[in-house]
Amino acid sequence: MTTENTERTFTIDGKEYKQSELSLRCRNIIVSRAEIQQSKIRHEMELEKIEVLTNYYNSEIKKELEKLEKTDGSESKS
């Protein structure tokens, strides 16, 4: 049974680098960038949820206003 020890690699501008070739600072910057990209995705998903909820509430407001207009229009004037 052989255990293959594969080193993590990063592709930057089309060139592949082994983790051991990169400075600690470079690795930290790569990790920071990855965290920012994940945060961006989470925020984009949150904005999509906000858009859906905003549309729902806008629709509910319209329904309530239509009820109000029907009520106001059906009242007889004395």
What's the quick description here?
This protein has 1 helix and 2 strands. By secondary structure, the protein is mainly alpha-helical.
The termini sit apart by 97 Å
Q: Give the number of helices.
A: 1
Largest sheet: 2 strands, antiparallel
**Total discrete domains:** 1
Average pLDDT, rounded to a whole number, is 90
- What's the count of strands? 2
Strand content: 5-15%
Would you give an account of this structure?
This protein has one helix at residues 24-74, and strands at residues 9-12, 15-18. Helices cover 65% and strands 10% of the residues. It has 78 residues and is mainly alpha-helical. Strands 1-2 form a two-stranded antiparallel ribbon. The chain has one domain (9-67). The longest helix has 51 residues, at 24-74. The chain is built from one helix and two strands; from the N terminus they run E-E-H.
List the SSEs and their pairings.
Layout: E1 9-12, E2 15-18, H1 24-74
Antiparallel strand pairs: 1-2
How would you describe this structure in keywords?
2 strands; 78 residues; 1 helix; mainly alpha
